[in-house]
Design a protein that fits this description.
alpha/beta, globular, binds zinc ion
């Protein structure tokens, strides 16, 4: 297959039956603007359809995996070939913005979580808020020992990111601590909590990821698909999807509340609060 060229990501095939999508915006700590999210979605679709591919890796250039949503992005969804049936992204009231988040945040995450092939996130450095949406929907997580995971959006008056699976990923108590304090979870702690499969030295992240990918790629795709679907169904039977849907509604209560109070989707003091938390956490 001829490789498409993208602006925010790269796609290559670093091992037999393995496709790798790499976030290639390190100068912005791989902040996700809308163009990047659509490119990721397109590349994951292509890899899913490619009969030569059995395992899909998501990796990132640079020091940090992803600093989350690019809050400076002003692109309109009408500029993109939207993929989900929500529509009317410019509708007044909460309706339009809710449709936007249903498409590019919750909708994309749920599609990626249900891709028919095993997926691996290969993670280093900071993973902040929306950055988690490029980790949690994926099947296996290999982390460098410098990886740190946080969702500090309570500081913006919200309940958490749009893909609300925290209690399933880290357990209920840790989920509350993570959300209440905005503090990050280290790679080692994430592994103890079951959120991460393996922790390796930063220099070994790529080789460890490809070793895992190749081990999986040696299996028949039919077995892999069915195993993945079975584990996903177990999570769904534990209420995962209903939790996500309910929390997404509450998330839009937060946006609506913030619009009424501050005339913007988030509490404007959020960024200052997060900076103060970071100062307090820094060793003196
Ligand atoms: Zn939101």
């Amino acid at each position: 297959m001829t490789e498409k060229t993208y602006e925010r990501i790269r796609v290559d095939h670093p091992a037999e039956a393995v496709a790798r999508v790499t976030l290639a915006r390190p100068e912005a700590a791989n902040a996700q603007d809308r163009a990047m999210l659509y490119e990721i979605n397109d590349a994951l679709d292509q890899a899913s359809r490619d009969p030569e591919v059995k395992v899909i890796v998501l990796a990132a250039d640079g020091v940090h995996y992803s600093s989350g949503h690019d809050l400076r992005d002003r692109a309109k969804l009408s500029e993109f070939d939207t993929v989900l049936p929500f529509g009317d992204f410019d509708a007044p009231g909460q309706e339009g913005y809710m449709s936007q988040e249903q498409e590019i945040y919750l909708g994309f995450c749920w599609r990626w979580r249900n891709l028919p092939k095993p997926t691996i996130a290969s993670v280093q450095g900071k993973v902040i808020a929306g950055g988690l949406m490029l980790v949690w929907p994926f099947d296996i997580v290999i982390a460098a020992d410098d990886a740190q995971f946080s969702d500090p959006v309570v500081a913006f008056g919200a309940n958490g990111i749009e893909y609300f699976v925290h209690p399933y990923e880290v357990g209920a108590r840790k989920a509350k601590q993570m959300l209440f304090t905005g503090e990050s979870i280290s790679a080692a702690e994430a592994q103890r909590l079951g959120m991460v499969n393996e922790v390796v030295a930063r220099a070994e992240l790529e080789s460890a990821t490809l070793a895992m990918a190749s081990k999986i790629a040696a299996q028949p795709l039919m077995g892999l698909k069915l195993a993945k679907q079975s584990v996903n169904m177990a999570m769904d039977n534990m209420g995962l999807w209903n939790t996500i849907q309910a929390a997404f509604g509450i998330h839009h209560l937060s946006h609506s509340h913030n619009v009424q109070r501050f005339a913007m989707m988030v509490d404007p003091e959020g960024a200052d609060r997060i900076r103060a938390q970071a100062r307090a956490a820094r060793p003196s």
